[in-house]
TrEMBL record:
PROSITE patterns: PROKAR_LIPOPROTEIN. Residues 165-201 are annotated as: Disordered. This is Copper(I)-binding protein. It comes from the Bacteria. Keywords: Signal. Residues 1-22 form the signal peptide. Residues 167-192 have a biased composition (Pro residues).
Length: 201
């Protein structure tokens, strides 16, 4: 967690000197020195992408085919207007991906993702050789800034990464209560038919 806070503090010190101008803020964060980190880093049309990591299994152990892996990152919107991370993909390694809340809002000059929670979950592992120490080609698509492509490391859940939170589990669905079979209503006793008393005139 200490490394991720280092990224955040370094970015915040740069952001404090920024001023608005045109479509982006100037000076741009990508032109400044950044704190060292273990993840993938990039810059996409005014959005700084920092310390992108995928958490896999134990070092050297292959990951489970069809399994999932959380992805963490710090995003800093250096544009003049808010943006949004709308999708994530890792083609060739994972079938699908989910974003926290269905999408991640990126306000201007406010780092997002510096906490312990993952911003994305990669699901349906297809690469049988994937293990901690591998690298994955990841695509991050932003609503306005376009698509960034990064080479992201898969790291084991050790060292400072033990403080990271897992992807939240879906809420358990309550099982319907079994319905007791309805007891048949007792039939009312049959009334005897009245016997007519006939007479002749």
């Amino acid at each position: 967690m200490r490394r991720r806070f280092g990224v955040l503090l370094a970015a915040a010190s740069v952001l404090a000197t920024c001023s608005c101008g045109g479509a982006r803020l100037a000076p741009e964060i990508g032109d400044e020195p950044m704190a060292p980190n273990d993840g993938g880093n990039g810059y996409q049309e005014g959005i700084a992408i920092r310390d992108v990591t995928i958490i896999g299994g134990a070092a050297g152990e292959p990951m489970t085919s069809g399994g999932s892996a959380p992805m963490y990152m710090v995003l800093i919107n250096n544009r003049a207007t808010p943006d949004r991370l709308v999708s994530v993909a890792a083609p060739g390694a994972f079938k699908e991906a989910q974003l926290a809340g269905g999408g991640v809002d990126l306000p201007v000059r406010k780092p997002v993702g510096a906490g312990a929670a993952p911003l994305a979950l990669l699901t349906g592992l297809t690469d049988e050789k994937m293990r901690s120490g591998s690298f994955v080609d990841v695509e991050l698509r932003f609503r306005d800034a376009g698509t960034a492509r990064l080479n992201v490391p898969v790291l084991p859940p050790t060292l400072w990464r033990t403080t990271l939170s897992p992807w939240p589990s879906p809420p358990a669905q309550a099982s319907p209560s079994p319905t007791a079979p309805a007891s048949p209503s007792p039939a009312p006793p049959a009334s005897p038919s009245p016997t007519g008393q006939g007479g002749t005139d």
